[in-house]
Automatic annotation (TrEMBL):
Keywords: Cytoplasm, DNA damage, DNA repair, Hydrolase. It comes from Flagellimonas pacifica. The lineage of its organism: Bacteria, Pseudomonadati, Bacteroidota, Flavobacteriia, Flavobacteriales. This is Uracil-DNA glycosylase. Pfam families: UDG. NCBIfam families: PRK05254.1-1, PRK05254.1-2, PRK05254.1-4, PRK05254.1-5, ung. Gene3D superfamilies: Uracil-DNA glycosylase-like domain (3.40.470.10).
Amino acid sequence: MDVAIDLSWKPHLQKEFDEPYFLQLTEFVKQEYGQHTCYPKGSNIFAAFDHCPFHETKVVIIGQDPYHGPNQANGLCFSVKDGIPHPPSLVNIFKEIKVDVEQPYPKSGNLERWAAQGVLLLNATLTVRAHQAGSHQKKGWERFTDSVIQIISSELEGVVFLLWGGFAKKKSILIDQTKHHVLTSGHPSPLSANRGLWFGNQHFSKANSLLSDMGKQLISW
């Protein structure tokens, strides 16, 4: 696995890349991609970082696993490639945006447009074997992405973290809430949304309100 990552992140993450666990993770990922169909494609594994430079990070959204179906995952959590049907969680995200900030429901589920505005769309696990959800968990990715969250917390200021669902909420302990903002809600998956834990959270308008208070550019969701 070639760690082809945006140069702005390298000085902050190089220590992680040099750790024994990351070298073991690299070998595991190489073997998996060599022997099985895995997602996203190799060049997109670090896409979340490539589309959102370190010092431009204003909002962080944390997902769990890449999509494991063909042509879905593009390296950004909750995002799919252009022309791919929107998975249920993404449908509910767009429905909430439509009501919350009165944006029309978009044709494309590709969230690179958010990343370009400073939204880091970070899955806790960056790779997965096709049709096997969670197959690359507990191999080292979580240690790496937890370190990413801690580095953002330590080295940046005024970042808005959107933590959706129990898994993401557990990451709040990694964030210095005296200098950052944390918004939590249920997960946008149908199971959670249909129980009234997602719709109406207004996270998109609230995030923009916080950014506005800090004098930062708003996100066009």
